[in-house]
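Teaching assistant here, posting this on the class forum so everyone can see the example we discussed in section. The complex has three components, and the goal was to see what a joint structure prediction looks like when all of them are supplied at once.
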Amino acid sequence: MRRRYSYAYLDPVTKREIRRKLLKAVAIPGYQVPFASREMPLARGWGTGALQITLSLIGPEDTLKVIDQGADDSVNAVNIRRFVAQMTGAKTTTDTLEATVIQSRHRIPEERLREGQVLVLQVPIPEPLRYVEPSEARARELHALGDYSLLWVDLFEDHLRRGLSRMGAAYPVLVHGRYVMDPSPIPRWDIPKMHMAPHLTLLGAGREKRLYAVPPYTRVEPLAFADRPFTREPILGRCRRTGANHVFLNAIPQEDGRVEYEISDQGYLEKLIKGVAPGPLYEG
Amino acid sequence: MGYVTARGGEKAIRNAEALFRLLVPRASRRAVKAVEEGLPYLLDRLMGEGGLWDPSLAAEVLWETGGDLYEAVLRIRAHRATLPRLGDARAQEPHDLLLVRRISSAFRDLPGGQVLGPTLDYSLRLLGRDPDPGTGPAEAEAPRRYLPVRGWLAQRGLLEEPGGGPVEDPGSPTPDLTDQPLLFPAPRPLRLQALARADTGALLGLGYSAMRAYNAHRHPTVAELGMGYLEVRIPHPLRGGEVTLGRIRAGFAEVVAHGERGYRLGFSASMGWNEVKVIAGAMLDLEMDRPRHPAREEEFVLLHTEPIEASGFALHYKLPHYVTFLSNQLSHWQEVERAEEV
Amino acid sequence: MLEERPILQVRGIRKRFGDRHALKGVSLELYPQEVLGIVGGSGSGKTTLLRILHLEEEAEGEYFLNVPGLEGRNLLALDRYQVPEVRRWLAMVYQDPSRGLRMDFASLTSVVEPLILKGERLYEALVAQGLEALELADFPLERAGSPPKELSQGQRQRVQIAKALAKKPLVILLDEPTTGLDLLVQATFLDTLRTLKRRLGLSMILVSHDLSVIRTVADRIVVLYEGEVVEEGLADQVLEDPQHPFTQELVGAKL
């Protein structure tokens, strides 16, 4: 017996709440808007927040791409893509340039997104202050006061002790000069892509029940002392299939203890292999 | 309640039991068999917490107690305490298990591959019966043994303490949690045994609290999760050599986090297949030496005892994390090795 | 006294903990570039008073700081979101250093924290200012990278001083800073305070149960007994010619 679901699975009341909260999030860049996250047929921690965003926005004319760590064929991405297609009738694609909505876990695609495209990021822990201030209530006060000194103190200690910042993925960023935001655990490599980008980025944390957004053409600046600028991870090898080393590469262990590398953005890798011209990449 | 003669009290107890039996009739053999066949994960949780492997007994106990899990665990533990100790089984490594499920969130791919095994992890949780997908023979045989991730990390010099792990000295006799008091700081074998028998929900709550307030500089990642079958072997008492007594389901998880000089490794294993338990257990194995105490606050209690949030998040550590793992590795230790040519 | 207008003033401070009246109407002033010593036994309310001055405790009464933007405003009537703004003008040195310092981070990091709060975003500038403050506090600079948990108690108190100095506050509040230090360490610490007072013209309120500590640094003394001010005046006068029996006892005990 198959139940009949609302269009895009979510009931109209839920869709309305999420859309309103998204509008609020876009109006206040980087600010975490609480929402009554519904339980989804996907486990918590597996993308329910981003999924609720996608389902609230997507329509039958949309084209959806879903990736996990950059890969379209990751089982989790496959599952989500199947579900959304089933519930909405939207087309699906692995081509970044073709998609109107891209739901992604922990990566921003290498090909530059255009105006009109929406990137929906899956967020495990939306609170950038969580590791310096475990209390939710206190963290909200700090955001209200614009007091991020705890993060700066931690950064200072890192530079003093180690000469650099140890923070890797989920590097905290200042959005529109006001709120510090957790960009989701994307690598440092992807952080510059968010700054003054033509596309809209929406971020959803279903378990923690927060939505937030970076509107197009918004400043996104990683927290760094003016005289100790932010740097990306070093790329240590070349893609074993294309020889490329200008984009983020996965490290694949080998039996003999070595490591081999491969382009992480699967859609981009496939274009290079097939000889299809990819879109323009982000600068620098 | 005032003083009651022993006889009166006894009668009350008998009546209480009789009432219970009225509410929960004894199960038929067929019903017990059905539970054994149909609810292996529930029984695994029970046997893991009970510390005794006997699926038919566990099924029977579950029926006897009307499904009251804590009552069932108690009965199994009590029964176990009456059994004579015949000896110790041979200690084995995690990779001595016949693994039917082996994944690593730290890498996209690795020698032996990512083997999903029987799992509902990636299914959609929609009520209603979907047609059975059905199975056929595999295209290629799965490996009997996999390359242990811990071994690979050690080989690369990435572990803080290459030694560490489940069994420090396989030769020496293993202390037994059931016949000695647990004093703190606990010797490692006793700690791991306590984690193996812990209440899954409680372990999850505490493990989840640690996961949620994770320190941005430590990044716990599941290096390896394995579920499979373990042969229980003892030395033959007369002939020498080994005898296999049987097979149990068993599973383990290894979690790595950034330490000062390399990755620190947390480990947890248990009888039966209980992924929530071993992931939370391994996380706590990493956490428990840090001087932190859970706050006795409303916020702490309410947020961390939510079963769906907690189990979903604990289990999300099984998802691929290889990009974040690499990003953190590179950022944390700023490896400046020369690029390796492929 | 160099100027007529006090920089800090409290009037009629009353504080109760349940049934216990810790402070029963305390009034005092602090003038620029002076050190006010508050002396009292246990139960006198002196630590509570300091915590109120640092806006860590609520109380009844009036509290004024003579700084631009806060003139005439009773600081005890502010809501919690306005408190951080006021705290910029104050620095507190705690009896227990773990309350004022991050015990596991480098000492220098604790010292620069107020500068970070003020908005300094140049790493080198933070390091330079922090080291300067540590030097003023007579702290051995080669240990600036050591966490306070690895330092001696005397050194920890110097880090607290440095943190207070880096902040360049209007008033430095010190709560029994030398309690627990051995006599020699105590003496060198008080030396440092005296030198800083002379060189930088600091305004300070120093609380102690120990009159000998107060007498080495204070210009004026206020004596607290069971939540009330029982005597006050210039340090020399109070010590030469104590009027109240409790003060007499204190002075007598030290001779």
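For the discussion questions: Residues 12-27 of chain A form the longest helix (16 residues). The helical segments of chain A are 12-27, 48-57, 75-88, 136-145, 149-162, 266-274. Think about how each of these relates to the inputs above.
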